[in-house]
Design a protein that fits this description.
Layout (H helix, E strand, L loop, with lengths): L3 E4 L2 E5 L6 H18 L3 E5 L8 H16 L4 E4 L3 H10 L8 E2 L2 H5 L10
Parallel strand pairs: 2-3, 3-4, 4-5
Antiparallel strand pairs: 1-2
Helix pairs in contact: 1-2
């Protein structure tokens, strides 16, 4: 599985454009293993490559975030563009209260303490 890198004590996950079920399932297995093995203390999920989000991707993302949070690694989502935001709104979906930052730099700069948009 590709699409992640470690930056200090955080894991940065860049979702690729149009993630399929197999890719999302691989994230569900790989990321928690890396969090556990490497002592990761936070996860940043970057959605910038996604032109839109569908319900299955949102559910998988929220499940992954809950999993790693139970392991002591809270999640910040960044890179939500206009199309992604519009698809979330039109489908009536949300990110289950996950903190959101405008970009990776803002997420790295303190998004883990934020309860809302940065």
């Amino acid at each position: 599985m590709d699409g992640y890198l470690l930056e200090g004590d955080r894991i940065y996950v860049l979702l690729r454009e149009e993630p399929d079920d197999e890719y999302l399932a691989s994230l569900q297995v790989t990321i928690p293993e890396v969090v556990y093995r490497m002592g990761v203390r936070g996860m940043i999920v970057d959605l910038a490559a996604l032109p839109f989000l569908d319900g299955s991707t949102v559910r998988a993302l929220c499940e992954l975030a809950r999993t790693v949070e139970l392991m002591g690694a809270p999640t910040v989502v960044c890179g939500i563009g206009p199309g992604t935001a519009a698809s979330l709104a039109s489908l009536g979906l949300d990110l289950d209260g996950l903190p959101v930052a405008a970009d990776k730099e803002r997420a790295l700069g303190g998004g883990f303490a934020s309860a809302g948009p940065a």
